[in-house]
Structures are given as structure tokens and as C-alpha cells.
Write a structure and sequence with these properties.
Blueprint: H1 6-21, H2 23-42, H3 49-73, H4 81-98, H5 103-125, H6 131-151, E1 154-156, E2 162-163, E3 166-167, H7 173-192, H8 195-205, H9 207-212, H10 217-243, E4 245-247, H11 257-270, H12 275-286, H13 288-291, H14 297-301, H15 305-320, H16 324-348
Helix pairs in contact: 2-3, 2-7, 3-7, 3-10, 3-11, 3-12, 4-5, 4-6, 4-10, 5-10, 7-10, 8-10, 11-12
Amino acid sequence: LLGKNPAKQDKLTSVLRGVIKSPTVQILLFTALVFIVGNLSLQKVLPYSWFSAFASTFAYAIAAVGFCLLMGYSGLASLGTGGFIGIGTYAVHYVVTESGLPFLLAILIAILIAVAIGVIVGFISLRIEGIYLVILTLGLSEILRNLYMVLEDKISLSKDPTILGFAITRKTTLYVVAVVLAVIMIITHNIINSPTGRAMLAMKNSTAAAQAMGISLMKYRLMAFIICTVYASVSGTMLMLVVRNAMASQGTGFYALITSLNILAAVIIGGYKSIWGAVFGSFVMYGMQTVVLNNIDFLAKNPVIITFVSGILVIIVVMFYPGGLAQLLLELKGKIKVLRTRMREAKYGKNLG
């Protein structure tokens, strides 16, 4: 009667729902939201501390996404994340600060070095598995950390780098990190849903069955470690943009064991098979103190409490939700859907058609 076509409206609605459900669109919308929050922080509408908190959180989240792919889909473990992050930080220091060369060249060099180390660790993983592989990567991380101290203990980014003529100042760092994280998330999602991701998952479930299906363990283990180390090195380059200096001998610095453990905890809390879970877990480990807990006087005066909170979360997740908070959200979504269906049936009756 009003001149509207219900069929066209239903078709348009279904198309919009399909677009919104697209992982790529969701990642882009998330990035746009980060831009809005960053702009509000710079304008002091939101606390300015949020700007740097989210920037560092997303920088660590890049490494967490790589670790998610390594552990959640390939079934491999590592405690070398801290050492791998150092590849990126030192590449930025020597290329940009010492040599005055472009920032993109520092990223490229960091990626090439990370690929070489990933290949070495990947070959070793063919001989060593389980806890022994974890210990080996931990030892490699400590070797890298001592190497960093020998090269130069304290490094810095003394000037604002540029990318394609665009200067990366402290007020634009969050935007650059958010864009890089979005690209990493989109690439990782495509890998997971490709034959490569399915081969990695088959390798994780059963190496014998994977080999019987013709899956090369050497190829996909090398690929998993290469991706993990590359993501960690890129994370290091982004962290240098955020903090602008680092010290290898610092016990709580980027390259210490605590960084590797925090990344592991972030993936466990968020969900070791969820990209979004890795990002949220990174927020719990690195951003929740500044954004949430500092608003409570007692917690602000006792920042060490975040350690207890994260420890308790890890225990709860391991005991009751092995899939992390991502599994919890999926279960809640299923229960809400069932509840809505029952309420509809109670109101209108069951659909007998």
C-alpha cells in the first residue's frame, strides 16, 4: 500500500547482514572504532592515557596473533616471543636512528632476519616436540637477549620516522599500529581459512594422520614458526614507535621471559584459536590496568594486582573454558539464541510448518 517492495527490503537486509558478518568488514569497523577512540583521547574527551595504552596493547597483539596461529592451529609452543620482538626493535634502532634510513626498510630487514630464525627453529621442531621445544625456544630467547646486551644495551628511536612521506609522531602512533594490526588480522584470517590453515590444524590434531594424508610436516612447521617470528618482529617495530626506547638488561623489558609468558597468557585467556581472543587477551594483559583498573583508587595504588587477576583468569580458563573467553562468548550466544527461541514459542506457539 505504501509503494514498498517487501521482497527487495528482505534481500537488502540479508545483503547487509552478510556484509556485516564478513570478518574483513568487522576488522575494518574495529579499526575505525579505534581511530575514533584515539581522536577522542587526543582531544581529552577520553583520558589521554588511553591513547598510549591502546597503542602498546595492539603492538603486543600483533605478536599474540602470531602465537595464536602457532599454538592454536599448529599445535606448537614457544617461549621465545620476547627475543623475537627484539629483532624488530633493534632493526628500527640501527636502520632509522643510527643510519637515518627509511622506517619501511627497518621493517623489511626485521622480517628477513625473522624468517631466517623461524626456519632454524622450524627445522629444530622436527626433532624436538612438547616441553623440550618450549625449553629450547626459551633458551634461544635468552641467547638473543644476551646478544642484544652485547650489541647495545640501551636503544632508542630518537626522531620521528616517516612512511611514504608521512611522519609518525607520538600523536599518530596509535593509528599506524591499528592499521598494521588490521592487516595482520586479515592476513591471518585468510591463512586460517585456506588449505594451509586446514593442513596446520590437521598437523596439530594428529601428525601421523596428517602425514598419511600427504601433509608435509616440515613445510607447515617451518611456515608456522616463520609466521610467528615475523609477526613478533613486526610487533617489535611497532613497540619502538610507541615507547621510543628500550633496554635489553631490564628484567621486565621487551626481551625478558615475562613478555613471552604474558603473550602466552593473553592467548590462553582470549582463546588460542581465536584472532579476536588474542587481541582481547592482549588488552587484559597490557591495557586493562590503564583503561579500567586505574579508575579504582585501591587498584590504582596497587598495580601489582593485575598479576593476580591475570593469573586467576588463566587458572579459570584452563579449568573450565579451555577455548578461552572466545568459547565463553560463543556459549553465551548459543544460550541467548535458545532463550529467544523459547520466548518466541511461548508467545506465538511452536512453528508446526
